[in-house]
Design goal:
Distance between the termini of chain A: 35 Å
Largest interface: A-B, 30 and 29 residues
Helix content of chain A: under 10%
Strand content of chain B: over 45%
Number of helices of chain B: 0
Number of helices of chain A: 0
Number of strands of chain A: 9
Structural class of chain A: mainly beta
Shape of chain B: globular
Oligomer: heterodimer
């Protein structure tokens, strides 16, 4: 299984929008609408932000949105806030009851 | 509200077996449409799915672990266990357990996580 490719870091100013890409293959991201996104803060439990490409769990801000085109999924954070500064990881179902995660992206709020 | 808590030794010697427990509170692992997964994150790297278990005892694993990983229901009720054999320094990581629904709640995602436990493999 290959790791999904994410940019190592992205940055944006307060109030702006940033988009994180997550590139896989036709065996994972491209073949299933089962991409999810997670926010990680050090020492805390990871938080599910998006599932099934673009659905938000109850309680997650609508500032977080997801999409997919071909083998690449994307997470957009709009109205950037200071507490959005964190690591973000994508995940895709990869068939045969397995999952593959992305390499992770650090978001810096300027 | 369901909560997960990982526990286990923070230090394991190379070639030995890493054993961790995930305790589920506020809910039962024996009910609902949920798998229970183990996921890890080596320092400075991305998350890595290790495997999962369903209440029936059905398990699925990441092929990358080549049969080194074993997930089972714990000796106590509402616990999930992970064993990873023949560990090396590459197994040093934060280990998480997570709930993995196969329902509309969050289909094929990981909706509730523990805070993780750090395991270092070193002599």
């Amino acid at each position: 299984q290959s790791v999904l490719t994410q940019p190592a870091s992205v940055s944006g100013s307060l109030g702006q929008s940033v988009t994180i890409s997550c590139t896989g293959t036709s065996n994972d991201v491209g073949d299933y609408n089962l991409v999810s996104w997670y926010q990680l803060h050090p020492g805390k439990a990871p938080i599910l932000l998006i599932f099934e490409v673009s659905k938000r769990p109850s309680g997650v801000s609508n500032r977080f949105s997801g999409s997919k085109s071909g083998n690449t999924a994307s997470l957009t954070i709009s109205g950037l806030r200071a507490d959005d500064e964190a690591d973000y990881h994508c995940c895709s179902y990869a068939g045969r009851s397995t999952y593959v995660f992305g390499s992770g992206t650090t978001v810096t709020v300027l | 509200q369901v909560q997960l808590q990982e526990s286990g030794p923070g230090l394991v010697k190379p070639s030995q077996t890493l054993s961790l427990t995930c305790t589920v509170s506020g809910g039962s692992i024996g009910t609902g449409s949920y798998y229970w997964s183990w996921i890890r994150q080596p320092a400075g790297k991305g998350l890595e799915w290790i495997g999962r278990i369903y209440r029936s005892g059905t398990t699925n694993y990441n092929p990358s672990f080549k049969s080194r990983a074993s997930i089972s229901e714990g000796t106590s009720k509402n616990q999930i266990s992970l064993e990873l054999t023949s560990v090396t320094a590459a197994d040093t990581a934060i280990y998480y357990c997570a709930r993995n629904p196969f329902s509309d709640v969050a289909y094929d995602a990981f909706d509730i996580w523990g805070q993780g436990t750090t395991v270092t493999v070193s002599s």
